[in-house]
Amino acid sequence: MSMIRDLRAAVRPRPPLRKDSGSYDTTRDPGTPSAVVDCAVYRDGARIETRTQLTPHEAMRQVRRDGGFVWIGLHEPTEDEFAGIAREFGLHPLAVEDAVQAHQRPKLERYDDSLFTVFKTIHYVEHDRLTATSEIVETGEVMCFTGGDFFITVRHGGQGSLRALRHRLQDDPELLSKGPSAVLHAIADHVVDGYIAVADAVQDDIDEVETEVFSPGRKGSPRGTDAGQIYQLKREVLEFKRAVSPLLRPMQLLSERPMRLVDPDIQKYFRDVADHLARVQEQVLGFDELLNSILQANLAQASVAQNEDMRKITSWAAIIAVPTMVCGVYGMNFEHMPELHWRYGYPVVMAVTVGLCLSIHRILKRNGWL
What is the pLDDT of residues 91-103, one digit of tens each? Predict the structure, then answer.
């Protein structure tokens, strides 16, 4: 089942949440919006509508009373903001620390009552022309806590909004009725679909650079391109690779190994995600190898161009050496030089000099030096 591919959906502002009457406060301060982007209870695949947005404590109390599961979405929470939620849902301290600090490697960790999954989101940065300082990909992070009756997402970075995905899932109650593991699959599918879109865009950039490197310049000679552009593109591909490669093993585990918190019907869909991810990984590895080849070809072209310039300089120096030698001989002011007093001495010497220069020029041009 394909999920939405829009990685550019912006998070719409939510009204400030009420202070929870429970054990923690969900607001930052009176002038700053809450880190909780959305908090809702889902039962039988449908969202339970309320007049005001629930706090995590209220949502969990409702789930424990009436069943279903709660899905809480947070954006860059502080340690204090997340501490209360961690206590409420019994999250492992190590996973909580990773979720707050961010900059984590994609991974899957299993704890007693929850799964902790880290995804790196990738956003393609549009640009008119690739330069040595162009930013091509922008990364963010989505951390997911999957429990029997809760699902918590912690998002870092300005990209990778999950609001559109939440609405898409709400329009598919049959899938959403499978519980938190269905949401985990949807997010994994959403992230990997984003990788596919970015890989296609990066492929266009690499094709453009490759064309520029091998396109003929003036007089049919290869003109190459700025090595800084290729190196910058290679760095961005490396960042892309760091997001894709470590995620392959977690997706394989979710698709192959039975897990108590993953519905068996949903586990089959993780195979499709793992397959798509493997294809993207092959693309990214291919990008890296191709850029190495392009960089080497560009450097070789620069070396060839320098050699051609040196050959031309040497050729012209050889041609100029002939009149220099002749002028040097006749500039020594010897008294007994028959040509100095001969009527046709000057035109004959000039003719011989020009003839020698033309002969050398012809020989060098025939050998490809000019």
Answer: 999 999 999 988 8
Q: What is the DSSP letter of 9?
A: P
**Unique residue bearing structure tokens 């940065």:** 125
> Side by side, which strands form the sheet with 107-110?
46-48, 36-43, 69-75, 150-156, 137-147, 114-124, 107-110
Band of residue 248 on the pLDDT scale cut at 50, 70, 90 = very high
User: Token pair for residue 223?
Assistant: 């003109």
* Cα angle value 303/308/311 (rounded, 5°): 125
What 141-144 contacts at long range (C-beta under 8 Å, 24+ apart), as own/partner pairs, is 141/102, 141/103, 141/104, 142/118, 142/187, 142/191, 143/98, 143/99, 143/102, 143/104, 143/116, 143/117, 143/118, 143/119, 144/115, 144/116, 144/117, 144/118, 144/119, 144/183, 144/184, 144/187
pLDDT of residue 28: 37
8 A C-beta contact, residue 17 and residue 27: yes
The enclosing H or E element of 282 equals helix 264-330
pLDDT digits (tens, 9 = 90+) for 176-233: 999 999 999 999 999 999 999 999 999 998 888 888 887 765 444 455 567 788 888 8
Pick from 54-58, 183-187, 247-251: least confident = 54-58
DSSP letter for each residue of 290-325: HHHHHHHHHHHHHHHHHHHHHHHHHHHHHHHHHHHH
Q: Is 222 helix (H, G, I), strand (E, B) or coil?
A: strand
Determine the Cα–Cα distance for residues 94 and 115; give it in Å rounded to an integer. Answer: 12
Q: How far apart are CA 138 and CA 136, in angstroms?
A: 7
